[in-house]
Specification:
alpha+beta, about 400 residues, two-stranded antiparallel sheet, 12 strands
Length: about 400
Amino acid sequence: MAEAFIVAATRTAAGRRNGRLSGWHPGDLAAEVLNALVDRAGVDPAAIEDVLMGCVSQVGEQSTNVARNAVLASKLPESVPGTSIDRQCGSSQQALQFAAQAVMSGTQDLVIAAGVESMSRVPMFTSSELPRKNGLGFYMSPRIQRRYPGVEFSQFMGAEMIARKYGLKKDQLDEYSLRSHLRAKAATEARRFDTEILPVRAWKQGEEAADAMHTVDEGIRFDASLEGIAGVKLLQPDGVITAAGASQIADGAAGVLVASEKAVRTFNLKPLARIHHLSVMGHDPVVMLEAPIPATHAALKKAGLKIADIDAFEVNEAFAPVPLAWLQATGADPERLNVNGGAIALGHPLGASGAKLMTTLLNVLQQRKGRYGLQTMCEGGGMANVTIVESLR
């Protein structure tokens, strides 16, 4: 089978809700990433054959095919098509896997996989709750409700279920949340994010674009303490989950450029990594967030690798119980997991997070001189993608 290579990757620093990226229209913010990818690779924009873009809340400013709109807002020519993908939190990881499959099939040679989400301008649940409130229907059909009687799928409840199942106590979750902030702080202060972050103008909604450039993930608490995290109110009285142990609402965009071996030769590209494995799995939609565990086991078996063969892991920190349960079930080395912090500190711009995590994973592998990296994330509806890459730098 033909190989697929990642030849460029970048992301914006995440912006907090109503923060330094909230003035950006999501189409324009995504266009910045598209422009940067072709610039970093040094390819003719007209050579891009497709743009696959993850986005979860595809309404309002993110409606009407945000991928195509981002192309039209970028310097890519009109000849470049685009399509939008929703696999919930894994949307742009799925975009990467679709791009790799297109290249590996031999049907395309240069494909951008990207993601964008402005959770300030298009708030979370807009695409599900607003139609319901306006009498336009509920995403859980009568047949789904009969199959899961009395259940409304909830990521918050799924996080609580995982914590109970794996015996995770609140103090463990608080300690993990602190570690996320401390690692993100250390990475920022050591400038380990510099090569992956695309500087864009700071721009709060309702204001003019500032002269300052947005280059630091806005959600990092540089003064985080265990006492402060432990004092955050529980989301439900008998639970263990707090907002401090949940991924931060964020704005952002990210992307990678996937190339065939032919394109690498033709354009004299320098691959960052080779796609070694890609897969996706469905799991229990009620517990919902546990899917990365069986998906990782299945991916490693299919790839012929052991957990110890992987030099770096990016497991999305939707809630603190997710990576902690994953560590417990896989036996992975915690010192290889989310080494520069995760979504608890760095933010989770939904549809952009898959490409964002891959950009960080490639950076970590290069800095640590590692070979294999594994990325996975839980997704609404009880699914998980797994992508394994081999670093070539």
